[in-house]
Amino acid sequence: MPFIFGAIALALGFEAVALFGDWALVVSGVLELGIVVCGLYGAVALLLKGITQRYVLPGFGHPLFNVLLLGSAQKSSSKALGEEKKKNTKYAEPMALGNICDTVSPFIFAFYFFGYMKTFCVGAAWISIISSCQLLSSFYSYLRGDGYHTTKFGVHSLLWLVMSWEELVLTTFLGLPAAQDSRLGMFGSWFFLATACLLFLMSIHKDTLEMLQNASFILLTSAFIHQIPLPGARPLLGAACSLCTALSLYATFASLINSIGEKALIPVGAQAVPSSALQAMLGALHTWLSRSKDIPSGTGAAVPDSLFYICNGLAAAAAMHGSVGDPGRQQLSIPSVLIPGALGQLFVCRIQVQGGKRFGSVLPFCYAAFWAAWAWLRLAGHLLDIGAGNTEGFTAGSVAFLVLNAFLIILASSFNVVLLCLTLAMELLTICFLLFTLENLPLPFEIVVLSILSVICFYGATASLTNCMFGKDLLAMGPPLLTVQSSRRDREDPLPCVCPKSHLTSGLRTIAELLNTGAVCGVPTDTVYALAASCKHPQAIEKVYRIKDRPQEKPICIFISNLEQLRAAAPPISPLLWEFMENVYPGGIGCIIQKGEWLKKLGVGAGYSRVGTQDSIMIRVPDLTVLVHLIDMTGPLAITSANPSGEVDSTHHDMVISRLGHKLEGVLCDGESDEVVASTVVNCTKIDESGITIVREGCIPAGKVMQIFERVKNRVV
């Protein structure tokens, strides 16, 4: 990998040198040939490894250096209380990809705005490709349930696309002098600025680097305001793009290294405001506006909702024109309306299909078609020779959309008031579109409708993003006006698996019998809910991996009911480790120790090779009476958190049943969990030589674990 990336960098460098000498093309060609050969070798080696489950072809070698040496982990004291969170491992972190796209795009723009390029044809092609990659990072953020980065990378991608194609139109078709007056009546950039401010506000509880990135995005969107004269705007845009490039380059490096190291090796700064404080401020605003102190515990906001509102708001703001007869303004506005309104909403439509919402992709798909038709007739009509006398097709289409949108209004009324208002505004806008085809449009009325639609979309984006990030309806979206009443039989759907109550002895016996027959069940722990399989049934442990979609290289730990069980197995454990475990068991700390034949004496049996790694095993004694009694009935249990791999932990038995119940034989129902994050994992394999290391910080802070260890060490030594 280092050779390939180094060769790519050198090849690009010699491509640039080729402007001054043809010999550089030969060197670049040789490097590119080497890249192809290495790439083919790597592909064949990995293919054979996948087939044979071992490396058949050698040559990958060892890392040139350990990224863990680049910095030191942040101390737990630098975190605000309540900020410990579990690493999301279902999908790779897309932040580095999104940040590198935010590095390359403004880098190209900086050269253009500083006058190194006279036209932007090639630049528009490059940025279109890069923005497509940034949409992929937005999509992967959606798959991880990350509403903030889904919105951020989606908005950034839209901005780069709009800017690039607007500059292409300006330099290729209009020219700078002719475009100056036309730009003064364009307002789409103001919505970009408002969205940038929203992202900044939502990042004040994140790290300092994230805030600085969003602040630079505010500067960039401010410089992009069309009312700034072009001679003064271009140096300002160049400076803003340079700042974005520098910050995004550092953010790329930091996010990539920190993701590999799974800790903050590269400093990104502390939080300006703790999440709890920001949530409290928004909660106070909710109380003041609604006159109610009750905040719903859940939210109806989905991850892509804010991006849906932003796309419509951008298109509506860009569609506002003070006059109809300015061909230059219409031509410049095509990217601002078509890209967010049509292409952006098709992206939202795609991820809405992925999410399987009840409304599905109907709304974004219909409105994408509407904005495409708007750009076709209202903005590109003079280029396509569509004018008075040949708009009958658009007239018929607008009437059809009026009828279609009436059904969308009825559907939206069963969701929330904000979505209902948006569909009503779109109905009025469709009437404006119809009047335009009939050559009877009152332009001030259209401007008012577009302004109202923009305001609705901005509030909808703000509320959706806030509610999605915090998982609560902190900003009101309004209740549904129509509710669909289902029959009692429909509401009382049969449970997908056996779900006994934990306070009943019969419930414990039911789950114990299932586990002893090789079943996988959801059980409560002293932290969050977990999946349990008996160590006597290795096929049940393998089933856990399939249920969670858990990577095979991620080991599963075991739970025992008390430390005396471990003493009876007589593992080769030092007095220091015994004393440390005496102080942390039972509780939310798991200890990784050396694996050996002694584990079979513990009752693990046939599951020996399925738990832990080849050399080590994590053992925990839970501080929950129900689970301890269950382990006494079944023997040691293989345990992992009860959530699809990478998703949030299950803190209630209802979450386990709804997400994994159809794959399980039973769930032991115990209500709310005691914690909202998983246990803290401590590596004790070298406790006598170099002490302990924190593998994962969970419900027990790392600082407290280290205090316990130091106290034990001083007493034993």
CATH evolutionary superfamily of the largest domain: DHBP synthase
Question: Which fold name corresponds to the CATH topology of the largest domain?
Answer: DHBP synthase
Principal-axes shape call: globular
Annotation field: number of helices:
25
Determine the structural class based on helices, strands and strand pairing: mainly alpha
On the 0 to 100 scale, the average pLDDT is 86
Catalytic activity: L-threonine + hydrogencarbonate + ATP = L-threonylcarbamoyladenylate + diphosphate + H2O
Organism: Taeniopygia guttata (Zebra finch)
Keywords: Cytoplasm, Membrane, Transferase, Transmembrane, Transmembrane helix
Family: Belongs to the SUA5 family.
Helix-strand layout with pairing:
Layout: H1 2-17, H2 23-52, H3 95-113, H4 121-143, H5 147-174, H6 176-183, H7 188-202, H8 208-223, H9 230-261, H10 275-290, H11 305-319, H12 327-355, H13 362-379, H14 392-412, H15 417-437, H16 443-470, H17 488-491, H18 505-516, E1 520-523, E2 530-534, H19 538-548, E3 557-559, H20 563-569, H21 575-584, E4 589-594, H22 598-601, E5 616-620, H23 625-634, E6 637-641, H24 653-660, E7 666-667, E8 680-683, E9 693-696, H25 702-716
Parallel strand pairs: 1-7, 3-5, 4-8
Antiparallel strand pairs: 1-2, 2-6, 3-6, 4-5, 8-9
